[in-house]
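Could you please consider the sequence and fold following this short note?
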Amino acid sequence: MKIAIIGAGLSGLSCALEFERNGIIADVFERDSSVGWPWPTVGFWPEILLRDYGDIIKYLRENFQISIKPLSKCTNIIMKSKNQKVEINGSLGYSIVRGKGAESIEKQIADLLRLTPVKLNSPVDYKELSNKYDWVIVATGDDIIARELGLWKDKGLIQITGAVAIGSFRPDSSTIYFNTEYAGTGYARVAPFNEIQAIVDLYAIGYGKFETDRLFSKFLEYENLDHLEFLYRITPNPFSTGKLARYKVRNLLFTGRAAGLTERLLGVGGVGAILSGIYAARAIIQGLDFEAHMNKLAAWAESMSAYRDIVNRFDNDDFDRLLAAVGKPGIKQLVYNTHIDFVENIGKVLKTFVK
C-alpha cells in the first residue's frame, strides 16, 4: 500500500507514526526546510476545554503511545481587561512549545519515527500524488486544497503579530489581555518559554498586517510592556479559519488545520490535529469510520467557535463585566474545581454579558 502525507506538522507526523507502528512506511512531503509550525510559539492546552480526555498528556501516552513532554504545567493565569484583573491558580492545563526547535511537540513526535523519512523542501501537487498513491493525507496546515475542491467554508481571518521577548517571567504562568482599543474582540498575551524568554503576541480579528503592527505597539505601551527587549518580530500571513463540508474525497483524507479543526474562540487545535492524523491512519489500516471520528472532533471545535460570534459583539464594558464575574470565588470554584462541562455552558455565560 502506497501512502503519501503532505505536511510534517502535528497531524502529518502523528499519521506517519501510526502507519509506521503498523508496518507501513509512508512518504512524508514537507515544503519547508524542517518539520513543525512555521514560527516559534507557546501553545496552551487548557484543562477546562479538554475535560473529556482527563489529563491530556496521560491520555495521549496511554491511548496512542505518544509521549509528549510539555513545556510546563500551567498553574497560574492572569486575565486583564481595561478595568479588571483576575488571577486564577490551580492545575489549569499544559503549556507546550510549537515550532521547529528541539522542545517543540512537532519535533518530539518526529523523533519517535524510526523508519519513516521526511522529505524536506518538497512542495508537491496533490493531484499528481492522488494518481500515484493509494491514499493521500492532506496535512498541510492551510485551506488551499480544501478551497480548490470546494470543501472549505470560510469563517474569516485572524492576523497574528508578536515577538520573542527577553525579560523576567514565570514559566508556569501566562497573562491574557482583552481590550478593544488594541485587540478588537481578539486578545493579546504573554506566554513564557522559560524564565528569561516569552512570546508576546496579539491576535487581531478584522485587521490587516499594517494596522495590526500599529496595534501591537499600542498594546505594549498600554500594558507597560514596551520596556521589554525583543529578539525578533513575528508577523505571519493572515490565519484563515473555517470548516470542511466533509473530510474524505476520493483517496484524499484531510486532517488538522487543513480540516478546519482549530476552534475560533481561542485558537486551540493541537490535540485535534494529533488525533485526526491518527484517525486517518486507522481509517486506512483498520477501516475506522473516519468521517464519524472527524465529525466528533469538528463538533467540539464548532461548539467553541460558535461563541466567537457572541464575543465579537463585546465592548470593553462587556469584557470588564465578564472578568469581574470570573473573579468571584464561587464562579472560580465552579469553573476550575468541578467537572462542569465548560464547552457546553460557556455560551450561556457569555450571552449574559452582552448588552
Notes: The longest strand covers residues 152-166. The domain at 3-39+63-71+99-155+239-305 is CATH 3.50.50.60 (FAD/NAD(P)-binding domain). The chain has a mean pLDDT of 92.
